[in-house]
Structures are given as structure tokens and as C-alpha cells.
Write a structure and sequence with these properties.
The protein is α+β, with helices and mostly antiparallel strands. It contains 3 helices and 8 strands. Strands 1, 2, 3, 4, 5, 6, 7 and 8 form an 8-stranded antiparallel beta sheet that branches.
Length: about 130
Amino acid sequence: MEKTIKFLNDAKVFFVATINGNTPEVRPFGAINVYNDKLYIITGAKKDVAKQIDANNNVAISAILNGNWIRIKTKLVKDESIEAKKSMLDNNSSLRGMYNELDSNMVIYYLSDATSTIYSFTDKPITEKF
């Protein structure tokens, strides 16, 4: 998971693809966190993305960095624990203006059954499973 975390942090922006009925939806995200050896993302409960994840938790995540790109196929699992939410906000302090670990709008998910592959035009792919 270490190479995946580094890639996403270095890229700063990554894209999460969900399913909206029969239609794919893609949007940018920018915050990750590692807590209890799990990789987390955050969104708002009122957003369509949260509703789509709750309806179908199979997602794809992608980013590009310096001519390399990452593709992650995963299931997102909601974590409602205050400790995990606090850790997310403590490590992404810019989100504190939008979220509070005690509010009902903050939703965090960890990646489960993930296969992450970093691709390059010149090197062999690097795959991590977590």
C-alpha cells in the first residue's frame, strides 16, 4: 500500500469513479489518510458521490503524475468511528472548515479488496493488493 499512498499524495488530485444507475460518474478528490493500516478517503454525506457509493461500493480511482498513472479497483467501506474521522481531519487540516468529526455530514470510507497498479510507458507495472 506504501507505493499507492505515495503516488496519491504526490499527485495531490485523484479521480474517483462511481456508478449512478447505469452511468459512470467521475469526480476529483484530494484527501487521503491512513488509519489502522487502512487507506481512507472523505466526502460529504449530502453529495451524490456518497449516495452512489452507498448504493454500489465498487469504485475505481485514478491519477496521473509525471507521465505515470495509477488505477485502483476497490470496494469502499464506510467507517463511522469518531477516531477514524478525527484522524482524517487531523491529517488534512484544510478540511476542518468543511467538516467536524462529530457532524453527520462527514463520511469516510476505507479501501477494501483493493488492487492498485502504477503504470508507465517505460517500466513494468507495479501492483499492490490491500
